[in-house]
Amino acid sequence: MTEIWRFIYSGNKAPSYNMALDEALLNWHSNGTIPPTIRFYGWNPATLSVGYFQQVEKEINLEKVKENKLGFVRRPTGGRGVLHEHELTYSVIVSEHHPAMPASVTEAYRVISTGLLEGFKELGLSAYFSVPESKQEKDALKNPRSSVCFDAPSWYELVVEGRKIAGSAQTRQKGVILQHGSIVFDFDVDKLFDLFHYRSERLRERMQQQFLKKAVAINELREKPVSMQEAVHAFKNGFEKGLDIILEPYTLTAKEEKEVQQLAKERYESDEWNYRR
């Protein structure tokens, strides 16, 4: 019998709320109060999120974040800086011990990302998984040169025509996998690269050019721009097909909503959390 997972489409939310809800879903699933869950959401305002281990002072140009009127939040997951603007963001919350989830992080990543792969196919794009093969590619994964997330595909990242099309990050806490990531419709590359510090202007230019060779957004590959509604529909179907599940829409109760708001305020709006490293 096909397993039923929960599906939440939150619409556009504040950065602190988005990260708080992902964490709350992880906690609730760990406690056994909710089944595995897939959530789609957007950002209001557009936001720069940084990985759990990033050093904000050193890597991020906070003046430019303010100048562009962007939200700012630290994720509970690793990885590098992501500008969440023209995109659909997804998160998957599932137990590490779920029968469909391999023990290895990269293999679990591949299984979850099969849902994304099927979603891109629904939009008419021939996406495939990247597998770093050469020593040079594998070394690049261990020592990323850039603070920008889409700079290079890593294991089982999704690629179209040789360029990375989705960026994801994963954490495992309390026996639960949280994987979330960006399905990008359009890049504003100048704005994105303004948000980071570089040793020199020449280095920035070189990295920006490399980025354009390595990353691609959905609308670059389609004649007709994708709408949010179309993307939600395609990736919901994609996850159902890729993970062989049924997604049942769910709305948070007032009690759950209150818990998320409290976590957003206490953790994800606090300077201590966002700027601490």
Please write out the topology.
Elements: E1 3-13, H1 15-31, E2 37-43, E3 47-50, H2 56-59, H3 62-67, E4 71-74, E5 82-84, E6 86-95, H4 105-122, E7 128-129, H5 135-142, E8 158-160, E9 163-173, E10 176-186, H6 189-194, H7 201-214, H8 228-243, E11 245-249, H9 254-268, H10 271-275
Parallel strand pairs: 1-2, 1-11, 3-4
Antiparallel strand pairs: 2-6, 3-5, 6-10, 7-8, 8-9, 9-10
Pathway: Protein modification; protein lipoylation via endogenous pathway; protein N(6)-(lipoyl)lysine from octanoyl-[acyl-carrier-protein]
EC number: 2.3.1.181
Keywords: Acyltransferase, Ligase, Transferase
Quick structural gist:
This protein is of the alpha/beta class. It has helices at residues 15-31, 56-59, 62-67, 105-122, 135-142, 189-194, 201-214, 228-243, 254-268, 271-275, and strands spanning 3-13, 37-43, 47-50, 71-74, 82-84, 86-95, 128-129, 158-160, 163-173, 176-186, 245-249. It is built from ten helices and eleven strands.
Account of the 3D structure:
With 277 residues, the chain is an alpha/beta fold. The protein has a single domain (3-275), classed as BirA Bifunctional Protein, domain 2. Helices cover 39% and strands 26% of the residues. An eight-stranded mixed sheet has the order 7-8-9-10-6-2-1-11, with helices on both faces. Strands 4-3-5 form a three-stranded mixed sheet. The model is unreliable at 140-146 and 149-153 (pLDDT under 50).
Task: Quickly give the CATH architecture.
Answer: 2-Layer Sandwich
Q: Could you report the average pLDDT, rounded to the nearest whole number?
A: 91
Question: Which structural category fits the helices and strands?
Answer: alpha/beta
Domains (count)? 1
Percent helix range: 25-40%
CATH topology: BirA Bifunctional Protein, domain 2
Order of helices and strands: EHEEHHEEEHEHEEEHHHEHH
| Overall radius of gyration | 18 Å
Main sheet strand line-up: 7-8-9-10-6-2-1-11
Shape: globular
CATH C-level class: Alpha Beta
How many strand units?
Answer: 11
What distance separates the N and C termini?
A: 47 Å
The CATH superfamily title: Bira Bifunctional Protein, Domain 2
Indicate the low-confidence ranges by residue numbers: 140-146, 149-153
Number of distinct helices = 10
Biggest sheet architecture: 8 strands, mixed
Assess the beta-strand content as a share of residues.
25-35%
EC number: 2.3.1.181
GO molecular function, one term: ligase activity
Organism: Shouchella lehensis G1
Protein name: Octanoyltransferase LipM
